[in-house]
Design goal:
The structure holds two protein chains of two kinds. By secondary structure, chain A is α/β, with parallel strands linked by helices. Helices cover 36% and strands 12% of the residues of chain A. Chain B folds into two domains: 160 residues, 3-Layer(aba) Sandwich (Rossmann fold), CATH 3.40.50.970; 139 residues, Rossmann fold (3-Layer(aba) Sandwich). Chain B is of the alpha/beta class.
């Protein structure tokens, strides 16, 4: 499942799937595919050490929430393989990236393409905001800012047990507005949690629009450093920069990679919608048609056929 | 005179944790206030200091649970659910992590005032799916709370008494079982936590007044044994009175009310506790008197229930414990 295709192809495939889904459903998390496709492609196709999936390629329907009586309950982590000591774990901290994460699972052969057809359908486990039971998810992260703390706790516990597997957190830059993110970093530094890794999609976007207009967060890298993380900044669309980032030594500190990205990378027409890119719903059939033609051309495919 | 036990939690936690290596002691800068400072000093490898950062601490504990550990979080109860409620829900309660939330200073057991007094925690915890709620009412229950809490397959909220704690019972907490402290047939008194001692103080005076009291002490609040309660209610003539170190909305008074209403019980219920009010800072006896949580308040409530006055005064009640607000153990008393 790893390195069977070029990571560039995986990233392109992620964008194509998210695009196709969004055109057909008259909207979606398109911008997150623009900014994050390389990061998730790189994680799944190259960097993460994962076992084979333990859950069926076509996701089972929603089977209930955790409760004392739901004895068959399991999370969606099985799409990332078993939780064995030697394997890595990944949390998608901004669960709003779920559509992109599901597309990634399909591109690397961990989920069947039919899985995406279940996205946001009633009774499906392939939920719009990735839930614990959604494919590839292991914890709930829909409330932003809790992912890094959970990762820190898991990493601390695994280090304590001597497990070689790493704990990875895919993050979004909006999460640095939450105080909990900084509480997590200071705890990692205090306890020397260096088996924790994060890659953050710094696309400077949040729900209300450009982060600078909503709440200026200043120099994130410098803040991470003074709070006690080892932080490296890269071009988030440059795969070789991601590979190089892993050469950083970070003894006693978590490694946090800030991946600076464009929210309309590879879908240039989306710039028209800047700065409201968090969820792109087409404003008219005309816009939908124009974007279909333009983005399809950017992605090197024919426009998507859809029902009007 | 009742036996007073000094710092029962300290020794009990240490004994339990040392025997269970997957138990981790988490603390948020209130280590000595939660009586785990000795444990920290003697077992530093099993102690995780997480500082004054409760939001991270709760999610971190969820991560430790995912790694197979059973974190015991130690801080004042109020700091463990008000600010980090979102984290409690998403990182601990929903995924049923085996996190043991050891909430110190329940209700008015602190002179710290509104910011330190967890007066609505039971109400909050009762409404959280997957949560178990235990409350300690004496030294024996404090001594047995670690084992009881750690037997729960999921998260558990515990109200812990600290410092000098009376010994009222001679058997450990049995999760799911209520204690039947007296077996009268006029009135059913239901109490939990420190209010149980108050009800016991009133017992002899009420007996002298000719009242036959059936008294239940609850140490397991959720899940709740409704059938046993209904059996006891069926055994008394007049009605039921609850007394709790908590607001009357959502606590054991509400629990009893819901149980009675669901079963169609047509008896009166009087709920005593904090009446839709915050408390303020002061000694425990003062606060219990001021807010009507003590033995005298129970007597007044029973008078209301039966429509008689018994002319019982403070002098008729068994001696109240005398406590210094500022003890040598903890000068700040917080």
């Amino acid at each position: 499942m790893r390195n069977q295709r070029a990571t560039e192809d995986v990233a392109l495939g992620i964008r194509r799937r998210v695009f196709e889904h969004s055109i057909r459903n008259n909207g979606g998390y398109l911008s997150q595919a623009c900014s994050a496709a390389e990061q998730l492609a790189w994680l799944y196709n190259e960097e993460l050490k994962l076992g084979d999936p333990t859950l069926p390629p076509i996701p089972a329907p929603f089977a209930g929430v955790p409760s004392p009586t739901n004895t068959d309950y399991h999370t969606g982590a099985g799409y990332n393989g078993p939780a064995a000591p030697e394997f890595d774990r990944l949390f998608i901290a901004p669960a709003h990236y779920a559509l992109v994460a599901y597309a990634t699972l399909i591109e690397v052969g961990r989920m069947a393409p039919e899985g995406l057809d279940m996205f946001n359908k009633d009774g499906s486990s392939v939920e719009m905001i990735g839930a614990e039971h959604s494919p590839g998810m292991e914890v709930h992260n829909g409330t932003l800012g809790i992912g890094l703390s959970t990762g820190a706790g898991l990493a601390y516990g695994r280090k304590r047990r001597g497990e070689p597997g790493r704990t990875w957190v895919f993050m979004s830059d909006g999460e640095v507005q939450e105080g909990q993110t900084w509480e997590a970093v200071q705890a990692c530094a205090h306890h020397g949690i260096d088996n924790l890794y994060a890659i953050m999609d710094v696309n400077k976007q949040q729900c209300d629009g450009a982060m600078a207009s909503v709440m200026e967060v200043r120099d994130i890298a410098e803040k991470f450093r003074v709070f006690g993380a080892h932080c490296v900044e890269i071009d988030g669309h440059d795969l070789s920069a991601m590979r190089d980032a892993m050469n950083e030594t970070h003894a006693g500190k978590p490694l946090i990679i800030l991946a600076h990205t464009s929210p309309y990378n590879a879908m240039s027409i989306l710039e028209e919608r800047f700065p409201r890119l968090h969820y792109v719903r087409f404003k008219s059939e005309d816009e939908r048609a124009r974007m279909n033609v333009s983005i399809a051309a950017d992605l090197g495919i024919e426009p998507i056929e859809y029902q009007h | 005179m009742v036996e007073m036990v000094s710092r029962p939690y300290a020794a009990a936690f240490e004994k339990y944790a040392v025997a269970h290596p997957n138990v981790l002691c988490l603390s948020a800068d209130l280590t000595s206030s939660c009586e785990v400072d000795g444990f920290r000093d003697r077992h530093p490898d099993q102690f995780v200091s997480l500082g004054m950062a409760e939001q991270n601490m709760l999610s971190f504990a969820g991560g430790l649970g995912l790694a197979g550990y059973r974190p015991f979080i130690h801080t004042f109860g109020v700091f463990m659910y008000r600010r980090p409620y979102d984290q409690l829900m998403a990182s601990i309660a929903y995924p049923r992590r085996k996190v043991r939330l050891m909430g110190f200073l329940p209700g008015v057991t602190t002179p710290g005032g509104m910011t330190h007094q967890s007066i609505e925690d039971i109400s909050v915890m009762r409404s959280i799916p997957n949560m178990t709620i235990l409350e300690t009412g004496d030294a024996t229950e404090v001594e047995s709370i670690c084992e009881a809490a750690d037997s729960i397959d999921g998260p558990v909220w515990c109200r812990i008494l600290r410092g000098s704690v009376p010994r009222l019972f001679d058997s450990p907490i049995k999760v799911g079982e209520m204690r039947e402290l007296s077996t009268g047939d006029d009135i059913l008194v239901v109490t939990a936590g420190i209010c149980t001692e108050e009800a016991m103080r009133a017992r002899s005076a009420l007996a002298k007044a000719g009242l036959s009291i059936r008294h239940l002490h609850l140490s397991t609040i959720k899940p709740f044994d409704e059938k046993s309660l209904l059996d006891h209610i069926g055994s008394v003539k007049h009605g039921v009175i609850t007394l709790e170190n908590h607001v009357t909305e959502g606590g054991i008074g509400s629990l009893v009310a819901e149980t009675m209403a669901s079963a169609g019980i047509g008896k009166r219920l009087i709920r005593l506790g904090l009446k839709d009010t915050y408390a303020h800072g002061g000694s425990r006896p003062y606060l219990m008197r001021y807010y009507g949580l003590d033995a005298l308040a129970l007597v007044k409530g029973i008078e209301d229930l039966v429509g008689e006055t018994f002319d019982i005064s403070e002098d008729d009640l068994d001696a109240a414990r005398v406590e210094d607000v500022h003890s040598l153990v903890k000068a700040e008393a917080l």
